[in-house]
Amino acid sequence: MPAGNVQTANRKFLLPGFIDSHVHIESSMLVPAEFAKLAVVHGTVGTISDPHEIANVCGMEGVEFMINNGKTVPFKFHFGAPSCVPATIFETAGAALLSPDVDALLQNGDIHYLSEMMNFPGVLHGDEEVYKKIASAKKYGKPVDGHAPGLRGDDAKKYIEAGISTDHECFTAAEALDKLKYGMKILVREGSAAKNFDALIGLMHEHFEMMMFCSDDKHPDSLADGHINQLCARAVAKGIDVFKVLQAACINPVQHYKMNIGLLKEGDAADLIVVEDLVNFKVLQTYIDGKLVAENGRSLVVGHASRLLNNFDCAEKQIADFAFDVSAFGEPVYAIEALDGQLITNKILCNPIVKKRFL
Q1: Which residue ranges form the domains of the chain, and what is each CATH number?
Q2: Each residue's pLDDT tens digit, 11-70
Q3: What phi, psi does 295 have (nearest 5°)?
Q4: 3-state DSSP helix/strand/coil percent for the chain, to nearest 5?
Q5: Chain centroid to CA 97
């Protein structure tokens, strides 16, 4: 039934809890327990969480920290094994997770999938280390997440055929459609940095069975304001059928990742929310495993302190350390152009003589 035909007067609605289908908890600048404390207020009961950032700094110990801290609260974190630590060979990282490390993580019952395979050139060119990590995920029957911004056509097909099942990096509908036709599931991302909701949400009319919602990176002030509930409201406002929206927000992630989260079926865990209506999705109550964890905008989750975990060692930088002397260049030089609301960048030519006064 279209949202416009749902009679909401004097009613409350019982729904499965919302799922963020791809998020780096570290981007919230909170430990998992504190992230959960905020998220449950907005009806989020679980996440698909890639601990890539902390692994990049602290390695295996960082992943273990996230898992253990997440267990201290009633919230259903589903962590993945980071596939690309460091992210590139040009990165100076605090740790490296090679294929034996990833295999060891994937054997752990607390690790539910292989996190985003950012090294799509490695997939396309048959990098042995990349394929060993993918093979480990297949061996343990765990899905492989993707990360391939802009990949289209035969390259997208080859990437998907390697066993990679999702992508949260599409920034145009045409790109998403190209990947959908090869069987890839598309995550509509709307976070604090990258915002692709408006570009992709129209696809949910026809492709709702193959789509999910995610934030990727959610800063604490943004998380305090709302989470997946906001995306549901925006999708309904765009004319998407409410049941299609809820399938993407609640059901598809649980089924794709085999999450231990109930869906209001007989025998399921009581992971559910009560909302005021099916338009604004104001969350009145959140339950996880039958326990009330949030009510009327107030979290009942108690955060837990954790031991300090730090591997950051950097000398203080001065402005002069970032200066670039262009006086020796007589020709235009390449520069990176940041794009508002996107993680992708442009490669542009700059005239060093014109730009010199800004450096």
Answers
A1: 11-299 (3.20.20.140), 319-358 (no CATH)
A2: 899 999 999 999 999 999 999 999 999 999 999 999 999 999 999 999 999 999 999 999
A3: -150, 125
A4: 40, 20, 40
A5: 20
